[in-house]
Amino acid sequence: MTEINKEQIRNNLSVIQQRIDQAAAKSGRNPSEISLMAVTKKKSAEVIRYLIDLNIRYFGENYPDETLEKIEAFKGNGHTTSLCMIGHLQSRKINIVAEHFDEYHSLDRLKTAVQLNKILKMINKTMPIFLEINIGDEDSKSGWTTENGKPSDQFLKDMEEIQTLSQLKVDGLMALPPVSENPEDSRPYFVRLRHILEKLNDNYGYSLHHLSMGTSIDYPIAIEEGATFVRIGTALTGPRI
Ligand SMILES: *Cc1c(COP(=O)(O)O)cnc(C)c1O
Questions:
Q1: CB count, 10 Å around CB of 202?
Q2: Cβ 231 under 6 angstroms from ligand 1
Q3: Among 1-10, 16-25, 60-69, which is the least confidently predicted range?
Q4: What is the pLDDT of residue 33?
Q5: What is the structure's pLDDT at 3?
Q6: Cα end-to-end span (Å), the chain
Q7: Could you read off the pLDDT of 106-137 as tens digits, one per residue?
Q8: Cα 101 to chain center, whole Å?
């Protein structure tokens, strides 16, 4: 099986952009508030270059070692791109994210935040951060679990600490709902994540601006429920082989 070509990506992108616009219109939102992140794990440097040519500016990667192998492609050839970590980060890979990534959208524990902050300080770099919420409270997922859909005491405590770390700029929340064939099944989880963000801003004095939620199967619903980033892999660049 050969990899996807640029024309196929262009066609996929045009369908996705239409669906983003429709979902935004349906919920009375401005499509310019919604960023499309291309998830490029297991995709080649060539596919990444096509995406940059097609004006994609946000990239999500899960495995730092794999990202390093194609790091040149993200440099953007004259365009500014943002390389975002969206997977679980092992301690020994934190330095890769510190040095080579622009944003970290899947911070899932205090310990990682502290270690990352320390490295960033040494290289004099700050980084936008999204906190990952285990929105379905699943054993198989990372991120902070909720208390019946509300921010847990542990989460609030950790967040307070993270907020004091000088190199990290907490900007939003990220979640991946339980897997389902029916995109409508994701909606209550997207609503939950939005409610958590509203609560943090209204009751605890934070000012978080972003909700990263929605993948190939359910991004229109995520947009209807307030997503400012949708993370799209297969619908844009085909199955990961
Ligand atoms: C792989 C991945 C995606 C993209 O999933 P698709 O179904 O290919 O769109 C989005 N978010 C995260 C966290 C991922 O790991």
A1: 9
A2: yes
A3: 1-10
A4: 97
A5: 84
A6: 8
A7: 999 999 999 999 999 999 999 999 999 999 99
A8: 13
Q: Which residues contact 85 (CB under 8 A, 6 or more apart)?
A: 60, 61, 62, 64, 97, 101, 103, 104, 105, 106
The answer to whether 158 and 152 have CB atoms below 8 angstroms apart is no
**How far is the centre of ligand 1, averaged over its atoms, from the C-alpha of 203 (Å)?**
31
Does 44 contact ligand 1 (Cβ within 6 A)?
no
Is 216 a pocket residue for ligand 1 (Cβ < 6 Å)?
yes
Q: Is the minimum distance from the CB of 39 to ligand 1 under 6 angstroms?
A: yes
Ligand 1 atom nearest 215 alpha carbon: 9
C-alpha distances in Å from residue 62, one per residue of 74, 101, 125? 14, 11, 21
| 205 Cα: distance to centroid of ligand 1 (angstroms) | 31
Least Cα distance to 36 among 195, 236, 238, 221 occurs for 236
* Measured distance CA(168)–CA(35) in Å, rounded: 21
Percent of the chain with pLDDT over 70: 100
Residue 26 CB-density burial (10 A; 0-12 exposed, 13-18 middle, 19+ buried): exposed
Q: How far apart are CA 144 and CA 175, in angstroms?
A: 10
What's the confidence (pLDDT) of residue 2? Answer: 73
Q: Predicted confidence band at 16 (pLDDT cuts at 50, 70, 90)?
A: very high
Q: Diameter of the chain by CA atoms?
A: 52
